[in-house]
Amino acid sequence: MALLTILAWVWLIDGAGMRMNSFVPLLPPPNHQATMPGMVMAGAEAWTVGRFALTFSMWWTMMVAMMLPSAAPTILLYARAARHGNAEMRPASSSFLVGYFTAWGAFSLLATSLQAIFEHVGLIDAMQMASQSRWLSATILISAGVYQISSIKDVCLRHCRNPAQFLSRHYRSGRVGAVLMGMLHGTYCIGCCWLLMALLFVGGVMNLAWIALLTLMVAAEKLLPQGRLVALAAGWACMALGVAILLS
Hints:
By secondary structure, the protein is mainly α. The chain is built from 10 helices and 2 strands; from the N terminus they run αααββααααααα.
């Protein structure tokens, strides 16, 4: 699991196969002279099947790099429980990972589709892969902030913060059961973090500083004793930044 995380980060630092410079400012300011929504950006690269597949692989690898550290307690606890089971149970921990990655693969497919749409209508800069519309940036930030303090976020976060409780409630035997458990845990993680991941459209999909900040935020709210307070503080900060962008 540690090797997977390291390899994912190395690939992102190298540009994720997209020949991009990942070392850009933490929050590129939206271009107020951007292309108006509904207008295709001049010179933007066409969204071919190959480009869509490469962008999807970038999103999926990014989700692995960002989410594995905070999901590690649940995955390791399940692996320990599987090792103490019978011989059929022992390979189940890898099946759990398959299910977890499948859930985030579905999210990555949606994120890639949204990126293609936003770029096509001129809301995202094709080179920086970041919002060039203050309305889009503010909407995502304020929405993420509201979601951070919502009861739905709290429910998903409680499942992510209590691995033993999750495993005891949703335990299924066998490899298929392990895959289903991994998918369910991944779904709770998506429910907890999907709007935080949408913030990548604001700071830049390949902005390593932004990726690292969000990774630390997700880990803090899931792993620290006062993680819920971290989530609330992040929510209010997102809303404040969103309002500041609207008023700028």
